[in-house]
Design goal:
76% helix; 5 helical Cullin repeat like; two-stranded antiparallel ribbon; single chain; mainly alpha
């Protein structure tokens, strides 16, 4: 076989060279002249003949070998056929035997393929199972509303698991579903947040109430100690017989300690009352979703809306303390929640945001309280409002909110509280004055005496020496008023508590409010009482006596305030009580009213006068109305013995002057046209009785004829007409030593003209009598002279 290949190889080489020679020759044929073709064909034939010779030589050379090979092949032919049969039989038998093997082999191949596929599937499933497990976990977290964990699971799926199986269709479906899940989570968390905001809006009052109780609990012990220290002035202490009840201080302390024990019970915190998890979840969810700013803006916007709603008061809030309490607890609850959010979250709310919100709220709160408190007319309600404001301020101050403006507002409300107290005590004083009998307090035994001096600081050694029964000079209203002034001081002190003010400031506030009570309320009540029509002279006298004792008691009120505040009266800036001036003004008003009523009473008696102005002869005795008036004045002036000397003297002088003026006006009345001499003589008898009354010294203390001088004008005028001494009057007129210096020419002229008309009427039929004619001429002459004198005075003027 190798040799055969070698021969073929050599044959190929020769053929190759023959082809090359042919091509070369063929080319040369066509390159030469036209005869070249013939030459070429000749040469080709020659070449072919040469090759045939060579082939024949080669065949002859190998012929024997070929014959030998054919012979050998013929010999082998039989063996080859046998071998073929054997091989065919063997192949058949082998094929028959290998069919089962082929079946098994195909099974093995199929199993191997399945095994490989299973392995591949297991590998792929092992790769997909964590993804599916995480996605299943995501579904469970969504079902369990663990949205923040679900978002974290989504992040793991996207960043870790999905890249492993991104080529699978189910993964694409999962990837497409995640944004929807995120939106669902945002909507659900936002819905939870809305529910949370609605819940805390409804429960803000409970949150605020709890926070205010906590703040109050923290202060209770200190307040109790302070009250206990202040109680030292209530332990059987007397300040000039002015005792402060011990029971009041003990009651206050026991009440405080009782409140402290109650407050020691477990107090729920804001975390116990409010579930803040929706806020945390929503914040974390939006943070994970990269939309934290949207959440913050939404939260702040909604809370600002809620703040406006919380700060909006009810229209009738000022009617009850519960209205104010509900208003304060809602506000406290709102800001307690915001403070908690500020400290447990990062960036959801900031200190600047809460400060801005608080400043806005504080301005609104102050405006609301200022408006609604102005409607409060009950001091107890104003006091409750003050206590609520203090607790409100202390609570929010504990959470870091500035509350100085609230305490400034309390000073405004303090003035209003004082106004309501003044109105209330004005009613109290009016009731006391209405119930008073304006008579000295009768005392029948020692026990009653001690009761009075315990209630009112009265000291009079002479009265103490007197035996029972006896009387205090003042009426029942005096100790009642004194007690009510102390009650007012107590009430005013209640407002000053817990205002974080010094004792000096509290002392100043108490003194100023007490001054207002004395100078405005009590003074106004006294003046109104004095001006009441049913208050008579006796009552006015008693009022003057009462004001005198109340004036003396003012120093004990100052000591009372000093004992409360422990601020000495000698301190430079200590305000003094204006009770002295108050009661002096009231007393002066009462004195003036006495003068007025006394003059009115005189006018009433004078109006009873019934003179016969045309009588020819007097009755020989004073008029009845005048004697009744004098007896009345005597009895009244007996009552005046309890008044200060100058008051009684002034009243007596005023009464005499008014009586003199009234009598003078009666003579000069324009409606009185005629007066007879008999009427003048009767009138003179009445004036004589007035002068006798004045000279009898109805009120001690007048020097000489001072009181009689009140009737000097009447006396000189009547003497002039009784004596008919016109020549002396006209001659001495204007002289300091004139006997009729007090007689006015105009007055004399008016009275003379009335007598002139009477003389004419009475002497119509007696005009021929010489005396009557002379008297008439004299009257006419005097009238002319008086008119000349009056005209001369007018021209001179």
């Amino acid at each position: 076989y190798v040799k055969h290949l070698e021969h073929e190889h050599l044959l190929y080489i020769k053929t190759f060279w023959l082809i090359l020679a042919f091509l070369y020759t063929f080319r040369s044929v066509y390159d030469d002249q036209p005869n070249a073709h013939k030459k070429f064909m000749e040469k080709l034939d020659a070449c072919i003949r040469n090759h045939d010779k060579e082939i024949e030589k080669m065949c002859n050379f190998h012929h024997q070998g070929f014959v030998d090979a054919i012979t050998e092949l013929l010999k082998v032919r039989t063996d080859a056929e046998k071998l073929k049969v054997q091989v065919t039989d063997t192949n058949r038998r082998f094929q028959d035997a290998g069919k089962e093997v082929i079946v098994y082999t195909e099974d093995i191949i199929r199993c191997r393929i399945q095994q490989r596929n299973i392995t591949t599937v297991v590998e792929k499933l092992q790769l997909c199972l964590p993804v599916l497990e995480m996605y299943s976990k995501l579904k469970e977290q969504m079902s369990a509303k663990r949205y923040y964990a679900a978002l974290k699971t989504m992040e793991q799926l996207e960043n870790v698991y999905f890249p492993w199986v991104s080529q699978y269709r189910f993964c694409q479906l999962m990837i497409e579903n995640l944004p929807k899940l995120r939106e669902d989570i945002k909507e659900i968390s936002m819905s939870d947040l809305k529910d949370f905001l609605e819940s805390i809006r409804k429960h803000s009052d409970k949150i605020g109430e709890t926070a205010m109780k906590q703040a109050q609990h923290q202060k209770t012990f200190n307040v109790s100690l302070q009250k206990k220290n202040k109680m030292k002035f209530g332990k059987n202490m007397y300040i000039n017989r002015d005792r402060i009840p011990e029971e009041r201080g003990e009651t206050v302390l026991k009440h405080s300690l009782k409140e402290e024990d109650e407050n020691e019970e477990e107090v729920l915190t804001v975390q116990d009352l409010v579930d803040f998890s929706p806020v945390y979840r929503c914040l974390h969810i939006y943070s994970v979703l990269g939309d934290e700013e949207t959440f913050e803006n939404y939260y702040r916007k909604q809370r600002k809306k809620q703040a406006r709603l919380v700060l909006q008061p009810q229209s009738n809030m000022h009617e009850t303390v519960d209205g104010y309490r509900r208003y304060f607890t809602q506000i406290v609850g709102f800001f307690v929640v915001e403070d908690h959010i500020l400290h447990v979250t990062q960036g959801l709310v900031t200190r600047a945001y809460t400060d801005e919100l608080w400043n806005m709220a504080l301005s609104k709160i102050i405006a609301v309280l200022r408006a609604h408190s102005s409607y409060c007319t009950d001091p107890d309600l104003v006091l409750e409002l003050k206590n609520l404001i203090v607790i409100f301020a202390d609570t929010l101050q504990g959470y870091g909110f500035p509350v100085n403006r609230l305490f400034d507002l309390l000073f405004e409300i303090r003035d209003q509280y004082n106004e309501t107290l003044l109105k209330k005590w004005a009613g109290v004083f009016r009731d006391i004055f209405e119930e008073d009998n304006y008579s000295p307090i009768p005392i029948v035994n020692e026990e009653e005496y001690k009761i009075v001096i315990t209630r009112f600081p009265f000291q009079d050694p002479d009265l103490e020496k007197q035996s029972f029964p006896k009387k205090f000079p003042m009426s029942q209203s005096v100790p009642h008023i004194y007690i009510q002034v102390k009650e007012f001081i107590y009430a005013s002190l209640k407002f000053s508590e817990s205002l974080h003010r010094s004792s000096t400031e509290i002392d100043d506030m108490l003194r100023k409010s007490t001054n207002l009570l004395l100078t405005r309320t009590l003074s106004s009540c006294l003046l109104n009482l004095i001006r009441k029509p049913h208050i008579g002279l006796t009552e006015l006298v008693q009022i003057i006596i009462n004001t005198t004792h109340l004036e003396q008691a003012c120093k004990y009120l100052e000591d009372f305030i000093t004992n409360i505040t422990n601020i000495s009266q000698e301190t430079v800036h200590t305000t003094r009580l204006y009770g002295l001036s108050t009661f002096k003004d009231a007393r002066h008003a009462a004195e003036g009213e006495i003068y007025t009523k006394l003059n009115q009473k005189i006018d009433e008696f004078v109006q009873l006068a019934d003179y016969d102005w045309t009588m020819s002869e007097p009755d020989g005795r004073a008029s009845g109305y005048l004697m009744d008036l004098i007896n009345f004045l005597r009895s009244i002036f007996q009552v005046f013995t309890h008044l200060p000397g100058k008051v009684a003297q002034t009243a007596c002088m005023s009464a005499c002057q008014h009586l003199s003026t009234s009598l003078m006006q009666m003579l000069l009345d324009s409606e009185l046209k005629q007066i007879s001499m008999g009427a003048v003589q009767q009138f003179n008898l009445d004036v004589i009785q007035c002068e006798l009354f004045a000279s009898s010294e109805p009120v001690p203390g007048f020097q000489g004829d001072t009181l009689q001088l009140a009737f000097i004008d009447l006396r000189q005028l009547l003497d002039l007409f009784m004596v008919w001494d016109w020549s002396t009057y006209l001659a001495d007129y204007g002289q300091p030593a004139s006997k009729y210096l007090r007689v006015n020419p105009n007055t004399a002229l008016t009275l003379l003209e009335k007598m002139k008309d009477t003389s004419k009427k009475n002497n119509i039929f007696a005009q021929f009598r010489k005396n009557d004619r002379d008297k008439q001429k004299l009257i006419e002459t005097v009238v002319k002279q008086l008119r000349s004198l009056v005209n001369g005075m007018s021209q001179h003027t």
